[in-house]
Design goal:
It contains 13 helices and 12 strands. With 344 residues, the protein is of the alpha/beta class. It folds into 2 domains: 2-149, Glycogen Phosphorylase B (Rossmann fold), CATH 3.40.50; 165-340, Rossmann fold, CATH 3.40.50.2000. Helix 1 (11-26) crosses helix 5, helix 1 packs parallel to helix 11 (271-279) and helix 7 crosses helix 10. 46% of the residues are buried. The model has no long low-confidence stretch (mean pLDDT 95).
Amino acid sequence: MRVLIVRLGAFGDIIHTLPLAADLHRAGHQIGWVCEDRWACVLRHNPVIDRVHELPRKALRDATKGFAHRWLLLRRLLRDVRSGGYDVVIDAQGLGKSAIIAGWSGSKNRIGHAPPRSREVSWLVSRTRVRPQAVHVIDQQRALGLPLLGIGARGGWQFPLPTWDAERVFARSWLISQHIATEPSQGAVMLNVGAGWPTKVWPQTCQIAFARLCQERKLPLVLVWGSPAERTMAETIVQEAKYGIMAPPTSIPQLAGILSFARVLVSGDTGPLHLCTALGRPAVGLFGPVPAARNGPRGRGYRTLQAPGAAWERKDVSKVNMGALSAESVLNAAVAASMDEHSV
């Protein structure tokens, strides 16, 4: 059976939906996926994804191109989706924009989340509406496959990813040039400095203190960053702490290459944390406005710390006390997580 998953973004949400695709692939279904073009690298050459339909996000938002041009791009995407001849479409996003694509897919068998998990009346497009029973978002996503798989078709989380062999070679070469061990047990602690929401970012003062503690304990430290603002923040941390090495500019596959050599990653609730989970590397997740029980990694090699504050607050940092997570408690959790991998 040909199954289309509609999950446009964001980075971490794409990762959280990969176990659903793995379930469907294991059951023998052929999988297509609609996503924003900036995340397509996670799905292209993925062993469980047969076809990727890319939504040109920037071009569709570019008002200078005119409505006709943007409509042409959207029509091109919808035609591409329809050409897949999908028997089933799963709206794994539950928003108006994903529902439009699901509705135009050509499939009458449409599965989606029931409200309130789905919003913007997107549930009206779905013929089968799955009411969430699980707490964790990954389990909620996997539940969308149950109408096709049955209750017994479960098992542990699986995160299929491209091999990214060239990117691992790039990462190894860079680490060696920085005199950092490429054996993960002797490798660097990695600190991801930013996050998508301001309220998810660990305060800069805490990150500086964390870097200084790494120096005291003689733990190599690499600072990972994405945007120009994050790069500035990482530079400030290195300058103030007088310790740590800035990661080079990376694509997502190159970031995966670097994280694959991490002793442990420390990160807020954002894409690199969830990518590290998918890669099977130890990690410590720092959570604030979103519950760790919903989004956090779990199992051996992972720790989550929860800061107090208003749930689901995106912007007002005064309402989420990420500073309550001390540098010492975070480093202790990181050391414990890294030791899990080598303990019997």
